[in-house]
Amino acid sequence: MSLQQGFAQLKESLQQQIIGQPHLVERLIISLLADGHLLVEGAPGLAKTKAINALADRIEGDFKRIQFTPDLLPGDITGTEIYRPQQQTFDFQAGPVFHNLILADEINRAPAKVQSALLEAMAERQVTVAGVTRALPELFLVMATQNPIEQEGTYPLPEAQLDRFLMHVVIDYPDAAAEQQILRLARGEALQQPAADILKLAAEDIFSARKQALRLHMSEPVEQYIVQLIMATRQPAAYGDDLASWIEYGASPRGTIALDRCARAHAWLHGRDFVSPDDVQAVLHDVLRHRLLLSFEAEASGMNANKVINQLIQRVAVG
Q1: Do 236 and 244 touch, CB atoms closer than 8 A?
Q2: The dihedral of CA 100, 103, 107, 110: what is its sign?
């Protein structure tokens, strides 16, 4: 079985458990392939926790859920030094961040110090405690969630931390047909019906798949298309005065790199050996949504990030 077939089976298996959220499932796998972190925004009960838990069950890695609360401390994330009186020494007690898959649940409910502790882990793949730097596992993915309904007592993520996320995915309620499937699935789980044997992907397979995705052919015009989309967010006046009035700050070079990697992962996941403009457009909203800082004029005009990105797709020429 090829790696692409293995990931196709992984996607199909996850969609059988995470019903009505195919977009979330695909973006989770793309994040795994592109070696990046995922920010998911959606109302409670939309299987955000279950999605990454199900992914953890299907790869050879460990999973940890961190519930972010206002009283959380940085050491609760990274770990801390514990004094052993018998030996008169300090031993490092590793925190939950030293796992392969991390669910940072309601990340915006924790104060800035805790968010910055996770920031180093996400960006540098390491943690520094008591002056000692410790490397995190090579296979490391953070999926953070935000609840868009209740914003009281929250600490909005600063732009610097938002930029560390590969993608920002917004999910909505499933339709009626999917809701009925969810009902049947929940009933079967409550009856403890035996589950089918789950095929697990090894970490080495994931690393090999990442290399295959990075080696996909990307023509010069597609590469230029990616660059021009990012440049349009920084110099929007070249594409219209209205666009210039809507965008206050554009995407950083991290956005360019993320768009390239996500487009490659999308193409590879769909069985292609080249990257097309369609792959770029397919992931563009999730890659740029959190990287655009819109003006007050945009909000007053009823524009949001999705609508601005739609305008970018219409105005930036392909090739």
Answers
A1: yes
A2: negative
Rank 46-60, 141-155, 260-274 by mean pLDDT and report only the highest.
260-274
d(CA 139, CA 206): 9
- pTM for the model stands at 0.91
What six digits make up the tokens of 8? 């196709």
Q: What's the domain range around 300? A: 217-315
Rounded CA-CA distance 280/267 in Å is 9
Rounded to whole angstroms, what are the CA distances from 69 to 66, 108, 115, 142, 147?
Answer: 9, 9, 11, 17, 13
The verdict on residue 259 lying in a domain is yes
pLDDT of residue 113: 87
Examine residue 201 and state whether it is found in any structural domain, yes or no.
no
The pLDDT tens digits for 9-33 are 999 989 988 998 999 999 999 999 9
Which of 155, 171, 190 marks a domain boundary? 190
